[in-house]
Request: fold
Amino acid sequence: MYSMQFKLLVLGGNGFVGLHICREDLDRGLSVASLSRYRRSSLHDSWATSVIWYKGDSLKEAFNGVTAIVLQQNMWLISSSSVTAPPQP
Reply:
């Protein structure tokens, strides 16, 4: 399990793939936020209340405290000094 201090930001977390990423990472014990065109998912599942939902114009607020970003196909790890993309296959 990961520390809750590890905050994951899922870009497009309201979409089909993004919702699955959010749920899976919540199950792994991560703190999860989503940035999409609409602030909150239309889902009424109990796990969805644990996601921090940001609307697309809240970019600066959404990135606050983020340690990793998921762009559906890639994951970017953030540190205080750099942003690192995973190696491409």
User: Anything to note?
Assistant: The radius of gyration is 12 Å. The chain has one domain: 7-84.
